[in-house]
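Standup, Tuesday
Yesterday: got the pipeline producing structure tokens again.
Today: sanity-check two examples.
Blockers: none.

Example 1:
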Amino acid sequence: MALARHSALSRHVQLARAARSYKATAATGSRQISCNASAMELQSSVPHKELLRALKDMVPSLTTDSHKGQAGKVGVVGGCREYTGAPFFAAMSSLRMGCDLAYVFCTPSAAPVIKGYSPELIVIPELLDSRDFVNVV
């Protein structure tokens, strides 16, 4: 009995790991689940339906009484006048993976650009620009 429970638990852990790897690379369009040997072994041994079932067990179901923010909030800190893409892509990736709210904390010069990329992001222009550091010192 204990051995059966251990093997079932082990199988569940393997499925969860494979599902996380599968979910992480599904966004990139990669055909392989992962580069490590154990995940590649699981790719051939775990049927696609079992992976989908494991993913479905991990994702909380939507209900009519839930509201914005209950499935997660993410804060991304970064971005300046020259570099606006990285904070945008990090925040958008979190939204696409199921997060409800994504906040981007950036410099005032980057805020209109990042906000212009997507209206789904909450942009807060509170970081100091490099020009502000010169004025402080």
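Example 2:
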Amino acid sequence: LRGCPKHEFRHFPDRNRENRTVIARDSAAETLRRIMMFVRMFLSVRTAVNSGVFLRRLHQKSGEMELLRQLRARLKATGPITVADYMREVLTNPAAGYYMHKDVFGTQGDFITSPEISQMFGELLGVWCVNEWMLGGSPKSMQVVELGPGRGTLAQDMLRVFQQFPMMQGVVSLHLVEVSPKMAAMQEERLTGAIKEDKGNSKASGEDVVYKRRRTTAGVPVCWYRDVQDVPHGFSCYIAHEFLDALPVHKFQRTPQGWREVLVDVDDGDGPHHLRFVLSQSPTPASRFIQAGEKRDHLEVCPQAGVLVQHLADRIAGHRGAALLADYGHDGTKTDTLRGFRSHQLHEVLQEPGSADLTADVDFSYLRHMCAVKDKVVTHGPITQREFLENMGIELRLQVLQQNADESQRKDLLSGYDMLTHPDKMGERFKFFSITQQREPNRGSRTPAEPAGFYRLEFKFFSITQQREPNRGSRTPAEPAGFYRLEFK
């Protein structure tokens, strides 16, 4: 309370507790008197002015951004919009969308992703692609298609793995699906070493679905697209890491009258923001995406993710390959997960749209359901990131990297390993999901039909030696080392 004197503290000795602090009675009485004066003033003013105006003076609404002004004009003209439409505007609006004009990744951004934490993550995904290529019969060409490539760190780490396999030289091409000009420029600089200006206005032509063609520093061709449907057909490994969580979701709430969709509307009242959530008065067209028998009372559905996985399933069935989707999500158990992130902190969804990332957990049970209607493909997972990386051999990769690392690098490697695999960090939070062709293991082969990472490798050892007897008086067995248990006395 402005104008009130500071509380005066006096210290009284206490035999049970030394230096006990209490507020002086005269100061407390004076404070109480001033509070009562403030209350009487509040009541007198409260009856003289509009309540909403007065409260807004006491509690200012959140800031007004350029995108907010656009949204308010649209809402006043056409009425409430779906949460999916709101997310689409906030994230990808050409003029003021969150992803469109700035670097949002890393410690200086709003969140950090697994490829930025450790090179081991991208390297193991590169190994996964090599394994799928070999299981597919080692075709003459393989497209690595990444959806939402971020800064290009994951693609860079995967390409470094491909260079270690001589039989893959000249086989790999990189195809990046990216709608943000800012992020595409960052990817180009990381992968090619420079940002090259295209001659002419390639963005406006609208004829060539490839809006950028380059070669990496190692000579690998790389192309950029705005939609995965524009990527050429062929044997492909599709990688989508933290891509699905940013796709727009429809939110629903069960009511006594049935399912009603959550909408976004203008808030000119006493709310903390300029926007608010409201319920539709009747079922909306998006309600048809709710599966029969749904038991949850609150639901998030992402039809765009369902369409995407069906498109990938069709490509895999017709042209071979596999898809690996990694994101934080659940298997049909969670309800309300929509949230915002800004500067690595939670941010209210309706506050200052365009200034923060919006994300919702991926419902992998919905993706599995959407793929079930497709022939010749099968889904795997979801499994936790910890399981996937351990199955791919992250511990062995960690040991190899530590051998040639200095003390500082070893600490970074261990820290990254812990962040990626610890159950209380990313290890249990993130899930891996895969789509592959239906396939049977080769006759006599011990290789499972599941893709790498979705089963635990168990190595068996077999040895051939000369027939031999242990030296007379020796305690060394005739078997080779490793085939008997050493017992130390």
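Quick observation on example 2: The first strand starts at residue 9 and ends at 12. Residues 313 and 374 are 7 Å apart (CA to CA).
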